[in-house]
């Protein structure tokens, strides 16, 4: 029957937090940065330096000696076309169950003894099939993007030689329902309407013979509606992109006072996992998929390099280039279960990402502006992104920090996001930070627990 296959398409996409694409982000899920619109290249402390600019390890305050942040965690979701609302509406309508019920009701009628009742019942089946197709189109190609990130940092800032070990992971998960069966369902409805007309003719004393009607969806010998799942061509296309990094950020300062500047470098080990799976709704079952048949794994060494310079009156600038060595990663599938995976023809490229930042800081406030100098390539099918991040922080007696910011995507204004956050420094040592960010279509949140002294 048709309904389990449709359920597979819908449930698989939702279970996998469906999306058509996801871009490799520059910013991390650090809650201080998220609250300040994603800015961090010129404001970071030891907790943020490995993610934004390793040179910041050597331009921190004199009293900063140690920082440990664990865990750092965040999530982000993006629903630009109200897929969730469309899904809720579809599920509330019960269109699949309605079609199932109407087919069952017809198949319990004997057309030879009750041709008029069979005709009326068939028209209900035909209408339910057409309605189902119309409603399914509301789910087609509507993206939802989901990301998750986590990390930890152990840092020892120092003007002479600052260092920090960090581990960071980011993953985006997605799938999209590619609904291609509108023509099939419309043919299904039209052919059953023809059969219904024939039974009406029989009920009126006519000579129509159902055996002369050409229909793949009705068996005149048994008098039952049939539906062959091999007629369906819709798919659920899924992708997962995951990056895991671990490395040692190092920084050192040159000069002293307002004119000092710092250089930083972060050698890191990167592991990439890609998963691509296209489930044919005719026969695929999400539970039957062996992840190894759709998995591509890569690992390599890369590094980031950054600069930071202090100026008079609390001003600072920063420049960073992340992922100096460009890499291309191919998605892979096994031609048959258990065989060696081969490239599918889809790939992503992680290119160097450059960002410039400027900030002003005093004892009670911080203001920062970051600008991407390069576009962030997509990991999937969406457009590139280039961010401008603006944020501010008010610091009350080194105990409470109130933060707000705004992130602009110069390639897509629908991804512009406002953000707010709160930091608590308990006893001057235990730090708890949280932030939220969002717009009408996007929502994100991050938290962090740390020790600093």
Describe the fold and architecture.
With 453 residues, this protein is α+β, with helices and mostly antiparallel strands. The protein is 20% helix and 42% strand. The protein has helices at residues 3-15, 31-35, 49-52, 83-93, 95-107, 115-136, 182-203; strands at residues 67-78, 145-156, 162-178, 218-219, 224-225, 235-254, 261-280, 295-310, 315-322, 327-333, 342-350, 353-361, 365-372, 387-396, 400-409, 417-426, 430-438, 442-452. Helix 5 (95-107) runs antiparallel to helix 6 (115-136). It is elongated, with a radius of gyration of 29 Å. The termini are far apart. 42% of the residues are buried.
Give the end-to-end Cα distance, rounded to a whole number of Å.
65 Å
Order of helices and strands: HHHEHHHEEHEEEEEEEEEEEEEEE
Work out the helix count: 7
Contiguous uncertain segments of 5+ residues: 1-22, 282-287
Q: In what order do the strands lie side by side in the largest sheet?
A: 1-2-3-6-7-8-9-12-13-14-15-16-17-18
The structural class is alpha+beta
> Rg to the nearest angstrom?
29 Å
Quaternary structure of the protein? single chain
Mean pLDDT: 84
Shape: elongated
Helix content estimate: 10-25%
Number of strands: 18
- What does the largest sheet look like? 14 strands, antiparallel, barrel
| DSSP strand content | 35-45%
